[in-house]
Specification:
150 residues, alpha/beta, D-tyrosyl-trna(Tyr) Deacylase, Chain: A, six-stranded mixed beta sheet, two-stranded antiparallel sheet
Length: 150
């Protein structure tokens, strides 16, 4: 699993001209799922994201998590995070999980985030063409890959 985590002042997902989800202060998580991913990846990644200390404290030091600031989270599936650009100029998505694998993992990831945050998590719509709007705060953008845990 790969996630691009962006600290946002606000973010929204629009599908066919209608806003499906929106949040204020919190995290926009773009989530890419590959065939080799499993439940251990979900638990590790969700926990890592919820505990990331990337919000400023009273001394303007990034020392607080999304939980600490009572922020919101929006999770959007994005298979293009597994694009391989090794050969040629046209990305290959061969590592990206097929929907029958990815959808249950995506839904379980959202449930795990909700369990850890103890509140609902906003989402996009798996497989839909989505317009994502955000105001990146900082900017703070972090990439995490469960295959190279740090």
């Amino acid at each position: 699993m790969r996630a691009v985590i962006q600290r946002v002042k606000k973010a929204s997902v629009t599908i066919n001209g209608l806003v499906k989800s929106s949040i204020q202060l919190g995290l926009l998580v773009l989530l890419g799922i590959e065939e080799a991913d499993h439940s251990d990846d979900i638990k590790w990644l969700a926990g890592k994201i919820v505990r990331l200390r990337i919000f400023e404290d009273d001394h303007d030091v990034m020392n607080l998590s999304v939980q600490d600031v009572e922020g919101e989270v929006i999770v959007v599936s994005q298979f293009t995070l597994h694009a391989s650009t090794k050969k040629g100029n046209r990305p290959s998505y061969i590592k990206a999980a097929r929907p029958e694998t990815a959808i249950p993992l995506y839904n379980n990831f959202v449930k795990e985030m909700e369990s850890l945050l103890r509140k609902p998590v906003a989402t996009g719509e798996f497989g839909a063409m989505m317009d994502i709007a955000l105001v990146n705060s900082g900017p703070v953008t972090i990439l995490i890959d469960t295959k190279s845990r740090e």
